[in-house]
Amino acid sequence: MQHVLNILEIINKEPQMSQKKIAERCDISVGKVNYIMNDLTDKEMIYSKKSGKRMSYYLHEKGIALLQKELAAFQGKKIRMHQQQGHKKVTQAVILAAGNRKEIGKPSCLLEVGEQILLDRHLDVLQNNGIEKVVIVTGYQPEAFENWVNHSGVHFTENHKYKWTGSMASLACVSELITDDFLLIEDDIVIEERAISQVLQYPERDCVLITSESGSGDEAFVEIQNGHLYKISKDIHQLNRIDGEMIGVSKISYDVFSKMLETFRHNKNSYVNYEYLLLDVARTYDIGYVKLQSVVWAEIDTNEQYEHVQNKVYHQLKRKEAEFKEKQIKRHVAEALQISPEEVTDIQPFGGMTNTNFKVRALEKEYVLRIPGSGTEEMISRHDEMVNSNVASELGIDAALLYFNEETGVKVAELIPNAETLNPKTAKRSDNMQLTAAVLKQLHTSGAVMHNTFNVFEKMAHYEGLLQKVNGRNFDDYEEVKHAVMKLKAMYEEMNVTLTACHNDTVPENFVKSGEEKIYLIDWEYGGMNDPMWDLAAHSLECDFSQEEEELFLDYYFNGNVEEEHKTRILMNKIFQDFLWSIWTNIKEAKGSDFGTYGIDRYNRAKKHIQIFYGA
């Protein structure tokens, strides 16, 4: 039995270890290791995966259960919950806001901190870091959250027994709403954004955030052993040493959350807090930690603490965040231009929904720095964007590209002089139509080759798979409409359309004028070989051209020679686009976002255009 347990423990810790190495570690023959592992495989204790010439071994649930029983219980050893290590993106968060705040008179997160409600700051920070779904647990004054009920991506649940329960009871309330790993935040915490970022970027799926002792008098002290959580206690006498203080921000895997819920179901103490259930799991499984020495943070439980935050902590926090962001920006620009960070002399936000674009001055010249928003790496191939951006830059269609990091998506380009970004209204002006039509014609007839292809039908199938994965649903008559779209696909593919270099995201905001005669086409995330009529159809839809406006736009593009086939392909591409983006919207809303009527509007427009196409 001991050899079996030793082999299971080795596999749990080092899945890539060969049978020969396992034999050396256990001091037994390779033949015996092979016999034991075959037996464990037959008993569904372990399974193997081959990658190239290397074989890796992993534990089934039965194997983990045996380790938990034989090792963790009797030898005090810990098991790795997640054998296949690697960073997993977290897109869900829980904010615990049920606590009684009679002295303050409202939930702590609804206090104004600086010029912003604390809850709004929490939501902004979470969105900046790729969180798409936030579940808020209320209790005390749940009606005070009325203004956030319809907030995009925000969901509410209530701990009706908050007066008589601890924080674990509140956390248990989210069990039906949380479907994956999540970030846990206590609502009364005011903390630097970088702390949230570092917890989310921690390589293991479970960790707590700790700092040096604050001296607040209500610290949850933490003791670390072998790089993982060992003890949590507010009683300093129960710890062998103090490694820090837990401050109400944790990353919790769905597996660990399930273990916590399982323990809580048999709990007899309704006042237990989630930290101690997490510690219970940590007695058997590895729970990591992130320690920040100089992070600015505070909690607001009392009026005195609130006054301290208002008068001192928040000003320190904003100053620290501004300094941190400035250092990041200067570091990016310095790396791109091969200069010293001190030579970057001016930084200004420059468009972008989340201020990810900056106008910077260095060496007496102005540039644009783009830092991608969190989460975009899953939707966009940065390598393809780099290639396509270079193509556009070489054609003179986009500003000169000076630097592109295909791993991070950070790029630096020359600043477009006298820049004026179009919008749906200004894009309808005749002079601007001439410019946009001309730049698209230049792209489509350039002969440039982009090594990727934008295939709308492949994307439809991909999005349907993603929608199923997040348990989303399409519209009631989706299959009927899809059947009509697939009939169009068959007709479309018979046209043998010649693909050209295309932008594929021709919203008016991607056209930037420089003076009266020059226009640039920017942002090539979706660039690729496609039917050039896609770009014309997209621009018409996004600008909401009337029939007469579209006729004028096409007249400029085709120099007065618009063929019926062009009109047919444009109408087909409009249908394909509206159908595709309606599925995309359903995916986003299934994950917690709120797009209002955007998805159904595009879906209904697709149906309308199908009727027009068939002359119905």
From TrEMBL:
Keyword Translocase carried by entry: no
Gene3D superfamilies registered for this protein in UniProt: 3.90.1200.10, Phosphorylase Kinase, domain 1 (3.30.200.20), Spore Coat Polysaccharide Biosynthesis Protein SpsA, Chain A (3.90.550.10), Winged helix-like DNA-binding domain superfamily/Winged helix DNA-binding domain (1.10.10.10)
Keywords, comma-separated and alphabetical: Transferase
Occurrences of domain MobA-like NTP transferase (ranges): 93-213
InterPro entries given in the database record: Bifunc_CCT/choline_kinase, CcrZ_PhaseVar_Mediator, Kinase-like_dom_sf, MobA-like_NTP_Trfase, Nucleotide-diphossugar_trans, WH-like_DNA-bd_sf, WH_DNA-bd_sf
Organism superkingdom: Bacteria
MF-aspect GO terms: transferase activity
Name of the protein in question: NTP transferase domain-containing protein
